[in-house]
Amino acid sequence: MLNLLEELYKTDIYNEKYHQRKIFIDKNSYEINGITQSGKTKLVKNYLLSLKKSSYLYIDCNDIRIEIKELNKQLQNFCTLHKIDTLVLDNYKSDIKIINITQLIITSEIKHNFDFLEHIQLLPLDYEEFLAYEHKYDSSALNHFFKLGGFPSMHKIPTNDRIIHIQKILKYTLNDIEFDILKFCAKVMAQKVSPFAIYERLKNDRKISKDKAYKSFKDLKDKNYIHLLEKTDHPKAIKKVYLCDIAIKTALSIDKHFARLFENMVFLELFKKNQKCFYADKIDFYLPNKDEIILCKPFADERTLFKKLEEIEEFIFTHTIKKVTAVTMNKESTISHPFSKVEMVPFDIWALGD
């Protein structure tokens, strides 16, 4: 194990062209959580390259050469002997002992709740971050976003290999039950679904307990592979499910539902901006803190939007809605309404706004 530590210590870190994220690392100690391929390793390596080579040790805990018992015996002495200030435990395993070090950075999918570590939740690219990979900012950029989604690695994968690439990384990372649940969620994306409905679906194909199905569903949520949205004023109502990235929909389902894909994109932008929101009958997203309604209308015109406003007028009046925003593909307009400000805004403009 000592020889392996020496090898890792001497090995140069390589980080292929790095595109800046909205999240960055400084001299603090961190626990960085995120789904597979969200960019955790690149974020850490980009930081390490700013340090003196002899001052850090980078360990990928997925390295099958690592014997954890031996690592636990030797890591502290090794870091002390070599005067290492920064230790990175990428893909951290819970049975690896934490040592005394100036700066510790661990990454994993699951949060380990170390009180002394500053927590970072790294999500797939939002639209603004995605644009850093684009050569020009026009309508083609949004089309690329629909095709590639928010996984940074997708920009290096040939077009005909992308679906299989996502399938492989998900099957490698998730257990069989989690993978099957994610496949089902991909089919019902942006719709209401309960853990019981998922259990009923799973038990048709495998022997599984309700507790196991419920736990796997919760694990997917806790790791941020899926997101659940409550109904406004009805916390016990069935929640809507959204995927962590739209590319998963294409990779795991042959069903084509552009409207649902578009709604999932809008949800992710709200989620990444920490906007508190709910769904309601005939309303995609209600933002109580802003007294605003978000409607996902990729191909709507003024006439169809005005008809929609008539359907939700009671909600607008009851909840004192100040603004209704219809997010579209490319339509931009303002509509006169007696109670609220109503705008049609293209997704790319809306996503880049405050």
What does this structure look like?
The chain is an alpha/beta fold. Helices cover 38% and strands 18% of the residues. The chain contains 14 helices and 14 strands. The strands form 3 sheets. A 6-stranded mixed beta sheet has the order 9-10-11-12-14-13. Strands 2-3-4-1-5 form a 5-stranded parallel beta sheet. Strand 9 and strand 10 (283-287) form a beta hairpin. Helix 7 (176-187) packs across helix 9. The model has no long low-confidence stretch (mean pLDDT 94).
CATH class of the largest domain: Mainly Alpha
Count of individual domains: 3
The share of residues in helices is 25-40%
Name the CATH homologous superfamily of the largest domain.
Winged helix-like DNA-binding domain superfamily/Winged helix DNA-binding domain
Query: Cα distance, first to last residue?
Result: 50 Å
Count of beta strands: 14
Largest pleated sheet: 6 strands, mixed
* Oligomer description: single chain
Taken from the alpha-carbon principal axes, the silhouette is globular
Q: Concise description?
A:
This protein is α/β, with parallel strands linked by helices and 354 residues long. The chain is built from 14 helices and 14 strands.
